[in-house]
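Input protein
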Amino acid sequence: MNNSLKNIRDGLKWPAITASTVVTGALALHMAVVNIPALTSSSLDDYVRHNDLPEALLDDVKNPENIRVYDDNNVFSAHHYAWNKTKDDLFDRKGKWFISDDFRQSYAEQFDYAINGVSRVSYDIDGIDAQIILAPRQSVRDHIAETFGFDADDVKIPERLSDTKFMLTLMHEVSHTKKKTYHAKQADSTRANVARSTPEKNADAPHEATLRGEVAADYGAIKAVDHVGDIPQEARDFQVALRAIVFLTKEPTHDTAIYLDDLFPKDQGWEKYDVNGHVEDRDVLLDSVKEYERKYDDIDNRYLRTYLAMMDVIEFDAVDPDKNVNERMLHIAELYIEGIEYFVPEKAEQLKEMREEMLCDDLATVSEINDYDGECVMQGIEVS
């Protein structure tokens, strides 16, 4: 064979060998990533140590080595998570040997959850009790501003709460992995066994069943942070305020504020409320809020419009027997107001002053105007 033919042959071989090597390597990497958790995650106890978190957080956690947390939300962890969540749907349900539409759609959805760091827990991974995804660690002020659309300069909570929030998020997901169904009235004051918060099945009220589980997970998170020294009250205040203003989210599954507020500091269970009827009460309250919200359309942020509307609900609907506003609804409204004032206190004060002026200037029922200094008497109720 002359040199020119040999060169052609060699030129043809190398690309083939290289492609084969790349494909083989890619398949090997894929199989490693989707089957070996250690490549994408750490055990819970190692994760806490590597991230300089207090080991006291795990005082009540049994077998932390069997719970894993993704170290980073990257393509490797996303593939690992998506594969283990969807592998049972890989083939067509009729047994045909090709990838099913269910698998393709579900894989893409689960990949997005993992790559975007949506905090959640999965029990679908063989060999471990649970796999946790955590939202990326970030400034708590930035998180609150981005989540609720506030101006970052208006968020006044101390930056030291960034670590507290991260601990609460981690331990919320860990609390979902516990082994017993949680009932608040049976809460163990010794905190030796914060029970599993995965909700019981409740076909008649699925949102309320899930809400029960989320109350338990929040409760477990706060109790875990109780072990960490000087921050328990801050953690409780933050979590109640945060959950109070998620009232406006699409589903009521994380609307836990009134139950946490009743649980702490008494640790006696929710004596005042049960979650049954929560969704119905919430819907009634939302209808009232939407009615009042219209007059605050000049405010771009819905959470802030609702802040003022909640004040109207308390001031007007609570004394109107036709509105059917009960004690739970009023408590939700009060905690929502307190939550906004917790996160954006100066902005809240400006809005209260604006509402006061509107009450005095715009309502035809004003019966008496004092020397105008921001106060008026309306319907026999002093507004100040």
Summary: The chain has 13 helices and seven strands.
